[in-house]
Structure formats: C-alpha cells, structure tokens
Amino acid sequence: MDYSTMKPSEVRALIRQGKLTGQTSGMCDGYAQGNLLVLPRAQAYDFLLFTQRNPKSCPILEVGDVGSRLVKRMAADADIATDIPKYRVWENGVMTGEYTDISQLWREDFVYFLIGCSFSFEGELLSAGVPVRHIEEGKNVPMYLTNIDCEPAGIFHGKLVVSMRPMPADQVIRAVSITASMPRVHGAPIHIGDPAKIGIADIHKPDFGDAVTIHEGEIPVFWCCGVTPQSVVMNAKPPIAISHAPGHMFITDVKNSLLKD
Amino acid sequence: MDYSTMKPSEVRALIRQGKLTGQTSGMCDGYAQGNLLVLPRAQAYDFLLFTQRNPKSCPILEVGDVGSRLVKRMAADADIATDIPKYRVWENGVMTGEYTDISQLWREDFVYFLIGCSFSFEGELLSAGVPVRHIEEGKNVPMYLTNIDCEPAGIFHGKLVVSMRPMPADQVIRAVSITASMPRVHGAPIHIGDPAKIGIADIHKPDFGDAVTIHEGEIPVFWCCGVTPQSVVMNAKPPIAISHAPGHMFITDVKNSLLKD
Fold first, then answer.
1. Do A63 and B52 touch (CB under 8 A)?
2. How many CB atoms lie within 10 A of CB B79?
3. How much of chain A, in percent, has pLDDT values that exceed 90?
4. pLDDT score at A258
5. Interface test mutation site (partner A, options B47, B48, B259, max chain A beta carbons within 10 A)
6. Quick one: average pLDDT of A41-64?
7. DSSP string covering B169-207, please?
C-alpha cells in the first residue's frame, strides 16, 4: 500500500478503523500534518493565551469548540478522538497510557488544539532545493532547549525549544524567505549562526532528536519547535492532557502550500 | 502643542493626568494605535477563541493577564485603565457611560484585549504613494456590513464588517503587497471589486463612517475592519464590557513599520 499518494480522508478512515496505527511520516504527500493537544476547559484559556503570546512556537491550525471532537476547518468529516493513529494520556504531567482511540476517554469539557508542524515547511524547502539534512540522513530533526523564555500565560511558562537545520550560507536567505511566508507552521527562523547565543552549549548534542552532520562552512539555522508547547504543558502538570504519540500525527485536508497566508 | 511629534510615553502621561481627553488621530506620528476591549474572565475565553478564528478582523496586539491593567509588550509603563483618553462602558450590550479613567471600575476578573487598527497600514500605504481617499477628503473611513459570517466562537458570532478604500487598478497590487505584510493590523484585503459579491447593496451608502468619492475606473478594495469584534461582542450582550470611545485609542510604543512579522 502506497500511503504517500492516498487522500487524507482515505488514510484517516483506515486509522479510524484501527487498520493503521503506525507513524504518519511520508503519508499523503503534500498535505499538512498537525500536532494534537487536548486539555480540559479549565486549563484551555491559559493555553490559548500561551499560543497567542508565542505564535512561532505554537502556531494554531484549529481549536475545537468545548466538548467537540469534530474537526471543521482543517478537514472534512474528521473525528479528533479516532483519526490519529496513536495517542498519549498524561495525568499530572506523567504519561499514563497509549491508546489508538480516545473515544471512551473523551469528556464534555475537553478542548482540542491542532498545532502546525515543521514537516509542512520542510516539504517546501526541499521543493526549493534547500537541503534538509536530517531527511537526507534518515534521522529525526535535532532539537535543543534554549535559554530563551517563552512569554508566560497563566500556569504555562518555560524555555523555548528549537529545531536546527544546517545549510550553506547561500541557502539561508531562501530558507528564511520560504518559511517566513508560512506563519502557521512556525514561520521564519528565530536564530541563525552561533548556537551559544541562544544557550546551546554543544550543537552536536541535541536535547531531543538526533545529531546531524554539519559540513564545513555550513550555518546552523534555528526554528521554533512544536516540542515547546508539549514541554510547557507537561511541566505545568495539568490533571489530564492528551497528545498524539511522537510521529503519529493528524493528517489534514489542507495542502502545505496553502498554509501561506 | 504639536502632538504628532511627541513620544507615545509623553502623550500617555498627559492622558493619564486628564490633560488630554480628545481623539488620538494624528498623534505620535508613526506609532501604532490600538483598539481596546475589556471583558470579564467568564467571557474572555470565547472572545480569545473568536480572535484566533478571525485573525483578519481581530488582529491581537496584546492580551492582559487576568486582573492586570499593565501593558507589557506594546508599551512600557502603561496602564490600560488610565492611558486612553475616553472609554465607553457597556452593560448587556447597551452603552451606559463614558469615562476618561476606569481605575474605579476595574475588577480583578477583567481581561483587556488590545486590537490592531487600520490606521497603522494607512500610514504605510501613504508612504508608498497609494492614495487613501477618506484621508484626502478629511472623512472617516467608509465601513460596510457584509453577508460574510465570521467564524463563531462560543457566545460570539455575527457578520464581517469591512472598510473600503478606492484606488486606481495599478495601485491595487501595491496595496495588497504592503498590507499582506502587516497581519497584526488586518493584513491583506479580503475582497477587491464588485461590492455586491460580499453583500454590499450600495457602495455610496456605508453602514458606518462616511461615503467617499470613487473616481472613474477606480476599484474598491475591502479590508476586514476592527468594528467587527466590537459589533460581535455587543450583540452577545455580555453583562459588562469596556471599549475605547471611537477615535480615542491607545497609543503604543511600537512603530507601525515594526508590525510586519
């Protein structure tokens, strides 16, 4: 089965039927995938405000109505409680289980947040001939905890997490230009060059993901990373939260190229 | 006194001292001015979600912490309850009073929203040689109720209000390009040309503001308007809401030219 050429609605149907429970990387080529975070209404205001104050870390694709599992804007006929291959449930900041369906766990006070993902702009970078090293090397993107504080909101606060892609100097401008036009998937980089300037001690030792090769003369380019909201939320230890399992994303009906404003 | 060349902090000090209670139009040339809306925490989640779902109508400059009058991001040392020349208080959707200071009315559960204003992009249009007819004619911008539904959020729903600026066809591209780069002050137009397409029966009879001259061959260009959130909120009749009085805005420390992302 070649999932890369299937329509998002077809893949979501397989996921909903429990026939597909693996990672979504490479599926439905060209369509945006989103990160999931579900919080009770009691914590949702603070988190919504956090996303408003930190739009480059937490670019919102869609926020559900209170209690609603229905995705309206980013997909047709989608159910956020069944259409993701794998979920993680967190209680007081501790992961307590993995599920392929959260229908039975859904509550009337739950609010879901679909958050844009850098997968979307990587496709655009590759199309434009900008190298994406971790894809070339078959690795996960290198991610680093910085010394930059997020703008706090209510119970949520913490340091910014960034992802890094090294590239030749003459590709940096193109990479900035392409990603700046995609604010709903992290937008322009937040830092270019010296890792120490943002509190990264060793570029070869990422805090999350894998180290990648940086060739002689290449410049590291740093983007805000979707791990930030997850780490910030889990640090706040809400009584319950649900996320997608890493790599097991929600596949939208919206093309990456349409995430330009 | 030439207010146009004064610093925002100086003008805000005069306003705070009650020495300046008039309209802020033309003051502190080049600095962004913002619309105010204050709501109790009980209605603030729905409104924050409304702004997230309708970013072109409700471009947020800053949202205060619950109970806080302090402006942190858009100005230094500013107090949202004293630094606007005139406020309006609304109870159940009905205006019940005008005040030059709302310190005595402030509550621990109040949340303020500072919302971007098209004044900011008009300066940029003028600098680029794009005509702004209502300024040429010394009028208020013409505004129209459309047949376009805003994306509803909780208790808030209603039709989109647009502002209109007519211009020669060869200026439209420049106007789109300039305003598209300013998403925090309404961004790119939402419609160009035929007013009937968005439910406007007579372009010469605006629902708010003044009619302006449209020269032979000029194209009307429509932008989302900051009147939308005000009308949507007042329609929902919250127990209490506070806004700025029309034309009596909050003057920020941020230059319009820096509202480009």
1. yes
2. 18
3. 80
4. 83
5. B48
6. 95
7. HHHHHHHHHHHHT-GGGT-S-SEES-GGGGT-S-TTS-S
Rounded Cα distance between B152 and B88, Å, is 25
Instruction: Quote the tokens at residue B257.
Output: 């030219």
- In which residue ranges of chain B is pLDDT below 70? 261
Q: pLDDT tens for residues A138-183?
A: 888 999 999 999 999 999 999 999 999 999 999 999 999 999 888 8
Can you tell me whether residue A224 is helix, strand or coil?
Answer: strand
Per-residue pLDDT tens for B165-204?
999 999 999 999 999 888 888 889 999 999 999 999 999 9
B interface residues, A as partner, C-beta within 8 Å: 41, 44-45, 48-49, 51-53, 60, 63, 65-66, 73, 151, 153-154, 180, 183, 187-188, 261
Q: Do A261 and B73 touch (CB under 8 A)?
A: no
How many CB pairs (< 8 A) connect A and B? Answer: 40
ipTM summary value: 0.85
Biggest CA pair distance of chain A: 55
Contact B63 A52 (CB under 8 A): yes
Least CB–CB distance from A261: residue in B49, B154, B187: B187
Q: Rounded to a whole number, what is the distance in angstroms from the first to the last CA of chain A?
A: 34
Q: Which residue in B110, B109, B58, B114 sits closest to B232, CA to CA? A: B58
Q: Which residues of chain B are within 8 Å of residue A53 when distances are taken between CB atoms?
A: 63
Provide the whole-model pTM. 0.90
Residue A122: CB atoms within 10 A of its CB come to: 20
- The closest of A123, A128, A105, A90 to A230, measured between CA atoms, is A90
Interchain proximity B183–A180, CB inside 8 Å: no
Half-sphere exposure of A231 (CA within 13 A, CB side): 19
Confidence label for A261 from pLDDT (cuts 50, 70 and 90): low
Distance from CA of B75 to the nearest CA of A (A): 15
Using only C-alpha atoms, chain B has a radius of gyration, in whole angstroms, of 18
Contact A65 B183 (CB under 8 A): no
Q: What is the pLDDT of residues B117-138, one digit of tens each?
A: 888 889 889 989 998 999 999 8
